[in-house]
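In the laboratory, one determines a bound structure by crystallizing the protein with its ligand and collecting diffraction data. In a computational setting the workflow is compressed into a single prediction: the sequence and the ligand go in, and a structural description comes out. We illustrate the idea with uracil.
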Amino acid sequence: MVVQPSSGVNTIVGVTTAVERRELLKEVWKEASTCTKCQLAETRQTVVFGAGNADADLMFVGEAPGANEDRGGLPFIGQAGRLLDRLLQEVGLERADVFIANVLKCRPPGNRDPRPTEIATCRDYLHKQVELIEPKVICTLGNFSTKLLRDDPTGISKVHGQPEVHVLGVRAVTIFPIYHPAAALYTPSMLDTLRADFAQLPALLAAPLPPQPAPDVFEPVPEVEPEPESPAETETATAEAVEGAPEAGAEVLEQAPKTSDDQLGLF
Ligand code: URA
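The predicted complex, in C-alpha cell form:
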C-alpha cells in the first residue's frame, strides 16, 4: 500500500475512493460480526466493531464494549461515551469527525479486564481498521489500547499527553495516549488532565502527516493486455509473469461488492 499524503480523503493505491474504503471496512465488519475466535463469543450479545467516519484523520481506540455497547452494538454509548462527546465538543469536534473502535470487539463478562489471549486474538481486526481508515492521529484511551498500539508495557500515567510517531503496518501514524474517560467518572480531578490532553488534539490534527516509510511492497502491477503467443514464447512469458507478481505476503485488495446497507454507524 502506498500512502500519498493529501488533504481530505487519503489515497490508498489499490483502494482509492472513500466508497471503496467503506465497502472494505464493511467486509471486515461482516467477518468480525460472526467471530467465534475466542470465548467472549459465548457471552456477548453483539460484536461492537466500531463506528464513525471512515475517512477520519482521528481515530480513538478504547478498551472493550461495556453493557450498553454490548446491547446497542456501538462503541462508547454509555456514561464514558457521553464524556467523550463532551470533550470532543470542547475542542470543536464531534463523532461525525472521528472513528471510534476498541481493542476488543466483544464485552468481557462483568466488564473484567481484557485477557492477553483475547487481545492477541482480536488484534487483527483493529489493525485492519487502522490500515483502511488511515488516520493521521490515533488517540489511545487508557492502558490497554496504549500498551497494544505502542507495543510497550509502559502504563498510561507515564505516557499520556505525549504524542509519538509509530509505524503501524506500512504507515507512520501519531499515537496520542490519553486517560480513558471512565477514569474521570471515578476520579473527577482526572477531568482536568483529560481536558489538557484533549486540548492538544487540534494542533496534532493540523500538523502534516508524519514522514512515511519508503513504500516497498505495494507497487501496483500494471495490467498488460496479453498478446497472442507462439508456443515457443510461452515458457519465457510465464517466468516473467511470476517475477512481475507481488512479493509473497503482499495483500491483493479486491473490490468488495457494493451494498447499500449502513450497519457500521458510518457517517
Ligand atoms: N469503554 C470502552 O473502552 N469502550 C467502550 O466502547 C465503552 C466503554
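The two ends are 24 Å apart (CA to CA). Keep in mind that any predicted model is a hypothesis to be tested, not a measurement.
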